[in-house]
Amino acid sequence: MRLLLVEDDDRVAAALVAVLGRHGFQVRHARSGHEALDALVPDGNEPFRVVLLDLGLPDRDGFEVCSRIRAGSGVPVIMVTARADIRSRIHGLNLGADDYVVKPYDMGELLARIHAVARRGSGPPAEAAAERSVGPLESRGVVIDRERRRVSVEGRDVPLTRKEFDLLALLAQSPGVVYRREQIFSEVWRSGWEGNGRTLEVHIGSLRTKLGLPGLVEAVRGVGYRLIPDEPGDPAPLGDPAGSGEAGR
Amino acid sequence: MRNRLLGILLALMAAVLAALGVPLAYLIASVEQGRVVVDRIDDAARFAQDLPTQGRATSAMKGDPQPATGDTSRLHMLGVEATRYHELYGARIGVFRRDGSAVAVAPADWRLPEAGIGAQAFQEALDGRRSHNSPQVWPWTDDRTLTVALPVVRDGDVVAVILTESPTGPLRARILHRWMVIGAGEALAMIVAVLLAVRLTGWVLRPVRTLDRATHDIATGRMNARVAPSGGPPELRRLASSFNDMADHVVLAMDQQRAFVADASHQLRNPLAALLLRVELLGLELPEGHEEELGAVREEGSRLARVLDDLLGLATAEHARPEPEPVDLAALVLARIDAWRPLAVQRGVDLVWDGPPLAHGWVDPIGFGSALDAVIDNALKFTPSGSEVRVAVELGKREVAVAVVDAGPGLTEEELGRIGDRFWRSSRHQNVDGSGLGLSIARTLLLAGGGSLSFAPAEPTGLVVTLTVPRKRDKR
Fold this sequence. Notes:
The complex is a heterodimer of chains A (about 250) and B (about 475).
Chain A: E1 2-6, H1 10-22, E2 26-30, H2 33-39, E3 50-54, H3 62-72, E4 77-81, H4 86-94, E5 99-102, H5 107-120, H6 123-139, E6 142-145, E7 150-153, E8 156-158, H7 162-173, E9 179-180, H8 181-188, H9 199-211, E10 217-220, E11 224-227, H10 244-247
Parallel strand pairs in A: 1-2, 1-3, 3-4, 4-5
Antiparallel strand pairs in A: 6-7, 7-8, 9-11, 10-11
Helix pairs in contact in A: 2-3, 7-9
Chain B: H1 2-50, H2 57-61, H3 69-89, E1 92-97, E2 102-106, H4 116-126, E3 145-154, E4 157-167, H5 169-219, H6 234-285, H7 291-319, E5 325-328, H8 329-347, E6 350-354, E7 360-363, H9 365-382, E8 388-395, E9 399-405, H10 413-418, H11 438-448, E10 452-457, E11 463-470
Parallel strand pairs in B: 6-8
Antiparallel strand pairs in B: 1-2, 1-4, 3-4, 5-7, 8-9, 9-11, 10-11
Helix pairs in contact in B: 1-5, 5-6, 6-7, 7-11, 8-9, 9-11
């Protein structure tokens, strides 16, 4: 999943890019509103799913950038800002921000918000992403039929329990993106806290066994799990997020 | 101020006019009277000339039984003259011998006065003195006559006395008339003085009034009020411009403070955000089994963020210009209690409400709600599980009091004096969650709306925090 981070403070940006990279996001960093608007021009790359917009920009007012982004595309915008006063929040939301996070934020909360707005996400790019998300999975022979809640590998149906299917469907929303444990618990178990510590591991294990693809679901230590969209042997290097390569562009 | 200034000016003016007018009136009266007296003396002198005193005439004067015939006819003539004089001028006139017997008198029944001013004047005339200093006649004098006596001197002896008693009516009328002229003049001068004084006080006080208005505006929070340059004394003009400068400086200082708060928060939030992100990153690298420390570090970070928020809240609360409005505090308090109930239930504390169904107070609902939140939060923090926190609304004569009673450990005397100070926390509660700003924010919010916050120990243990707000609009 590609994100656009608009942030003038390099230290915050670097840390955020690193953390998001560890979570499997590809982040493009823009230092100014101008740069951000340039980056949003479609250039054949995978479109951005979410924009994280800091309001304290050097060249123009963040609110203005937000309304320009809104006018130009349907990409969801999360305002990330040091302005905590209620008036700024209301103003930002009125200008078309989809969400509003005040620094310093909790990482888990920020990720949950990113996933939330990406899910609501914009029409066509999201569909394209959904199709693409099927693409790499299909390359490995996995087809997920969300309508009929059935999964087949290489054409044969794999019987999954309700929770196993929900888990696979969640991870397949954004292949490559790491889903944090608490998020998986919220969405699959509808619970805000992790039951007994091993439940998730047990389900992941049975998923791997049933699908016969041990390398499909990867555990990222300290974070959570993700689907590996590519063939094993060519894993996306973690820690050096794919997005950082574009940041200097 | 205006009335005092006018009073002073007009009193001075009145004193000056009186100091000029009273002697003038006196002078006029005495001049008028002097003219009458001189007139009468002239008349009397004419009679004195006509008095037959040549040769044997003295015999007639001395009351000889057979006076000379020429004398007799002249005496008769004198009588006729006197009668004519009396008819003409309305003044009595008489020529008296030394023994007081009349030589010629008009009107005929007039006799020498036995006592009083007439007798005194006669006596003086016998001693050879003219009566100059008859008592001053005022328009209100009871004695309606003016007596003039003139000795008739022959060969150094006083042989007779001519006494006139003229009515003072015309004299009094003349004096009164001239006094009225003076009075009219003085009244005119006074009117002019009043007009001038009003103009002067207006000129002096207009800048003071605008200054007063601007000061009041600034005191009640309209910081953009300034004194328009107007006339008035140069000192007050200088004062007004100094006042404007001062107001500018105050506004500038306030703006700087506000900007500092905003900047500080912004400048602190970014590094804090970066720090917490780095902590997350470190957390990803940690081997298993360190979740607890990582959670603790995260907790510290978010606590720092909360302190920052509280500080900002305090700064904005101090700048807040609440707009008080009539609010049903009973409903407001109930709403806040409902909001806190889940947390209370989670902590095993019973939130109890007690009060009238309706309690109108004059508050800024948001500020009061925030203040009450801080107080209830505090009470829930210190109340052990299983006991209760009571919120009681009481209607007073002038104010509504909302008391929050907790069953916590309470505070010592010394601590009661310090509670509500910024960042103050009882050393015994250093480990309870919070920044120590909650109650000072509450106090600031209440003070801004004309209320107050007070603390007292509760029985048997615990703390009573009372939020007091006015029932009626604060007339400032």
